[in-house]
Amino acid sequence: MISEALQHLKGIGPVRLARLQAAGIRSWSDILDDPERIPQRWRADAVEECQCARQALDSGDIRFFVDRFSARDKWRILSHFLDQTTFFDIETTGLEIDAAVTVIACWHRGQLRTFVEHENLDDFLHLLDDVRLLASFNGSTFDVPRVLDAFHIPQLPCPHLDLRWPSRHRGLTGSLKQISSRLGIRRPSDLTEVDGEMAVRWWHAWRLRGDAAARSRLIRYCASDVLLLLMLSHHLALLPPPPAEHLWQHLPESVGISTESSEARQTSDAVGRSYYSGAFGPGSPAILRGRRRLS
Description:
The chain has 295 residues and is of the alpha/beta class. It folds into 2 domains: 2-59, DNA polymerase, domain 1 (Orthogonal Bundle), CATH 1.10.150; 80-294, Ribonuclease H-like superfamily/Ribonuclease H (Nucleotidyltransferase, domain 5). It is built from 14 helices and 5 strands. Helix 9 packs across helix 11 and helix 10 packs across helix 13 (262-280).
C-alpha cells in the first residue's frame, strides 16, 4: 500500500492521479519500470522521487515518508510501519502555552507505559530514543510543543505523525473520542463521561490533597486515549483492529476510593477551581477543552 502513494510527486494532484490510475500507473514500480508512460515535462522528477522513496523504504527511513507524503497518503505510513509505531497522549495542568505536563501515556513495543510528573516523567525522554515513529491525535499543535517545552529540547528525536489529518481525509472529523464513538469503539464504563476538564481536576486532587484514587483515575484516563489511538490507527491502515476488550485489559486499575468528607472536598475543590481558573485563563474549561482537541 505504501508504494501506491503518488500525490507527493511533483506535478501530480488529484486529477492527474486519477488519470494515471486509469492508465494502470498505480505505484512507484509502475513509474520506474515504464517511465515513458509519464508525461515528459514531469517525468524526471517523478522517477527521481520514486527512486528515493524505494531507497527510503528499503532502509526503513520512516521520516522520509512523514516529511514527504501528502496528508491524503499518510495513512499508508501506518499500513507499513504500524508495528513500529509508538502512540502517546499527555495531560496538563491547563491549556495555556506554559501549562505543565502532568501525565504521559504511551503504547510502545506492545506495552502500555505511563509517566507522571514528580515521579518518573523524565523516563519518557529516554524512551523517545527508542521510538521509530511517534503518533498522536492533534499532537502537532498541543502534545508535541508541550513535550518539547517540558524537556527543554528543540525537536523530537523521532518522526511524528498526527493522526488528526489522515482521519480528516477519511471523513472522520471531530475529537478522538467523537471519532472513536462513530467507529463503534467504547471506552470502559468508568471513563465514558470523563474529559480533559476532569483530568485537570484529578491532578489537582492528587497534588493538593493526596487523593491516590484521583491519581490512578487520571493515569487510566490518559492511557485509554492511547489505546483509542491504536485502534484508530488500525482503521486508518485498513487493518483489522485488535479486540477492544483485550486492549482495555492493559489499562491500569483504579486504585482506592476517596475517604475525604464532603465538606472538605467542597472546600478543596473550591480552592482548585480558583487556581485553575488562572491556569485556564479567561475561557471556560469546556471551551478550552474544545480548543485543545479540535483547534
